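Appendix B, example 12.
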Amino acid sequence: MLVRKGHMIASANQIAYLVERGVFEDGEPTSILADPPSVVRKLNAAYLELHTLLDAASRGAAPPDFRRRLDDIALLVHAAIDLNVDIATASVLHNQHQAPYAARHSVNTALIAVLLARARQRSRNDVMTVTLAALTMNTGMLEHHQRWHDSAGPLDAADDARRLAHPERGVRLLRAAGVNDEAWLNCVLHHQENEDGSGYPHGKVGAQIPLLSKLVALADRYCARVSERAYRPTMTAHGALRDMLLEARTTLDTNLVSLVIKELGIYPIGTYVRMINGEVGVVARRGLQSTTPHVESVLGPRGAPLEVFLQRDTRNASHAIREVLSNAQVAALDAPRLRMAQVWGRAAVE
């Protein structure tokens, strides 16, 4: 059917006919009901573009439009968060196989760093700075990062030296690629420093470390802990936050760790939990209190997968959270792989 400008639709049946078959213009079909924007697709696009861009930069072959393309990736991360922050946060836990680790980890770190910078009410320029710094923080060790991630053993002396040198090497590579924003470069340089001076490369302490670097560092540590690694079991998000709270006594800024927990919640979105009634579910959104989030049950009390997920309010005594489970523990229960759209709808389509 050809539809021209000014054509009058004669009946409801004609509308149904057009919707079913789509609209054709200039011979090219387009859906009359376009897919809504997807948070996960935006992040996947950021992963893949960043992988290509940083690979070139790490070899000293950054393209002339390196800065513009990085800005575009940063804006993709911001758009994903603005579209649905819950889905963006959950993707750190449930979207771990869409790109090489190094690029995916950097995008995820940028995502969490943005949440922290916004919570601190930093300026738009500062938010962009932490985004760009997180995206590029590991440029200096990119060529080795995937190998280290896949390795089951400790780093040898040569690799450990490369790790310790990566902030300074990253700054040199970024300068060579045309980056001259000192706030951005300082953020990259100091993102491995610790409050007590035990970090690297310069052993800075407390107030000597820029605030924006601290935000990137906290996001980096959280995302690293919850990522699947060959050489250690994956931590739950709940466990990662608990560990960071313990570290706040020595290596991390206590107030900023509290900010991370406040922003992500005691049970971060996407966390698997077992409830008192035996059901296993995933935290879908926050509740009125941090200890009582809303959960979607994915496994019944006897461990059988549920064809239709059940919404549970953990304020209810029988649906109260009994324990937190890792992704690996849930997989060991023979649970099918969770598709994020099953919990968060079309905005989480891969």
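The longest helix spans residues 39-58. Strands lie at 23-25, 28-30, 272-275, 280-285, 294-299, 305-313, 321-325.
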